[in-house]
Structures are given as structure tokens and as C-alpha cells.
Amino acid sequence: MNVIHSKSFTDSIVARGLTKSYGATPVLSGIDLTVPTGSLVALLGPNGSGKTTTVRILTTLLAPDGGTATVAGHDVTREGVAVRRAIGLTSQQATVDDLLTGRENLELFAGLNHLGGRRARARAQELLERFGLTDAAGRLAGTYSGGMRRRLDLAVSMVSEPPILFLDEPTTGLDPRSRAELWSVIRELLATGTTILLTTQYLEEADHLADRVVVIDGGRVVADDSPAVLKRQVGSERLAVRPARPADLPAAAAALATYGAHLDTEKGELTLAVQDPDHLRRALDSLHAAGIAVAHVELRTPTLDDVFFELTAVAA
Question: Staple 253 to which of 46, 185, 263, 310, CB 3.0 to 4.6 Å?
């Protein structure tokens, strides 16, 4: 077993005032971030908000323009080797070799982490069992399903038993079953004491997994708290409306624009905050006046999606 990670920290990841620009375009404008040891913190934000740039800086793949950051107590700019020894990274694109079997991929990375032949084979077997890949161990990784590839990629990142794991949108593109399977693996890692920083496009994922959620927009942190607290801050109930005809969605959005309605084309519905019963009635009257038939109306308690849309709208 790798024993270089024996030092303990109250906060495994600490960033203060991180800035980064690409040419004249600022991407990070003073990010502050703390990830307590043994916790899972989810980093959320719209596309281009700086999530992946933050991860790249914290994993020493990119130098910041300003600010400071430590991972496992090591400065990311001055002690890059020590940082890399303490972390595992699963990026948006799988890094496994399609021309090697699952077992060969794990043994290869074990060798790159300076594990001897016997230990490398034993570690590969441990990970195959842990990530539910034993039956596919002898198959080429190129034949794996999307969910299996992501599990193998996650297993590769855990070869050296790092105490800190960065997961950059690990479930993007997976079907719901594969996503749920990966969630189970992530929970198991968290239960064994692994510290995890997760970026994700799926707010449901953050709601299910995270101890804390950090929302960034425009290169700045706009919220940092537990999912429960953030949802309470949004406060009011949400009205969800689904037109009878999907083609009416744009017209419904226009009719409810003054109410701050959010259009979700994937679900085919609009949601808006309900301030009081009269506010609800006026919104529905606006749809009726526009000649839009409604197939489904529902009042909901706030979700993390509502938090995200409200916070990023305010920040914009």
C-alpha cells in the first residue's frame, strides 16, 4: 500500500482568490473554495463558468494567474509533485486504453504508480472486484458500455489509493441506470474516507451526493452551503406547468416571461416561483388568455435546480 498520504488535514482542499484568464477573457475572478477532509463538495455552474478550469488548477494541470491553493497541505504551484501523489482525477473524457483489457489497464497504471508486479496484479484484482468489473476483466476496454468505462476510469484513478479524488463531470452522457451505479460507487468511496470534489451538470446528482454545494457563475462563487440550506433560501413553492401541445412551449414562456418563468425544454415544462395564491391565479390566467391549453399543473417544494436557476440569473 502507498503510505505517502498518512498526514491528516482538517481541510484537504483550500483555494483563496484564484484568478485565471485566457487572453483578454477572464474565466476565474477570485474563487474561494474549501473542501473539508472526508466530505464531498459539488461544484456547480453553467457552461463556461470556470468549473473545469478550477479543477485543472487544483490538480496542477494549469497554473493560476493569481491567488493561492493547497491540496493535501501542498501548494499547487510550488509542490506539484506532492499534490499529484495525493490525488486521483477522473476527467470528462475517459483515459483508459481501448486496446487493453480492463485488467491490463489497471495493471499498467499500477506499474506507473511504482507498484511491483505482484502488488500491481493484486491491486488490479481488488479494484475489479470493488467496481463490479470482475466478469469483464479479460475483455478489451473498447467493448465496454459507457457505464463500465466510467467505472474502469474511476478504478484507474484509485490505483494509488489517493485520499483526495477529483471527479470532473463523471456521469455526463451516461444513461440513468449507469449513473445510479456510479453514484453507488462514489458513496462507497466517501464512506471509506475519501475526500471528493465533484463537478457536475446534474443538479440531482449534487443533491443526492454532496455535503456542500458551491455554485459559481461568471468566475465567482455565488453560493456555498448544504443543499438543504440553499433550497430553504429560495423559499417559495414552485409552479410547474406543462402545455398540452409541446409546440406551445415558446408561446407559454412568452406569456409567463414577466413572472420569471424558467423554460425546461428537456422536460417540456415551465417553472416559476409562486409568491401567493393570487400570483398563481394570474399566471394561469395569462396562459389562458394566450390560448394555451395546459396538460399538467403541479406545485412543488424548491429543488436544487430552482436554486441554481435563481442564483445564476441573479449573478447574470
Answer: 263
User: Could you give the 3-state DSSP secondary structure of residue 175?
Assistant: coil
φ, ψ of residue 298 to 5 degrees: the values are -145, 140
C-alpha distances in Å from residue 296, one per residue of 238, 246, 265:
14, 12, 15
In sign, the C-alpha dihedral spanning 27, 29, 35, 39 is negative
Q: How far apart are CA 3 and CA 130, in angstroms?
A: 20
C-alpha distances in Å from residue 62, one per residue of 28, 57, 179:
12, 5, 29
Q: Residues in the chain, how many?
A: 316
For residue 250, count other CB atoms closer than 10 A to its CB: 11
Q: What are phi and psi of 272, to 5 degrees?
A: -150, 150
Handedness of CA 3, 132, 134, 104 (dihedral sign): negative
Rounded Cα distance between 111 and 234, Å, is: 50
In 3-state terms the chain splits into helix, strand, coil percentages (rounded to 5) of: 40, 25, 35
* pTM of the complete model: 0.74
Rg (CA), the chain: 22
Tens of pLDDT, residue by residue over 34-52, are 999 999 999 988 888 899 9
CA angle 165, 169, 172 (to 5 degrees): 140
Task: Report the SS3 class of residue 240.
Answer: strand
Nearest to 141 by CA among 174, 171, 107, 105: 105
Sketch out the chain's domains with CATH numbers: 11-231 (3.40.50.300), 238-300 (3.30.70)
What residues does 87 pair with on adjacent strands?
A: 164
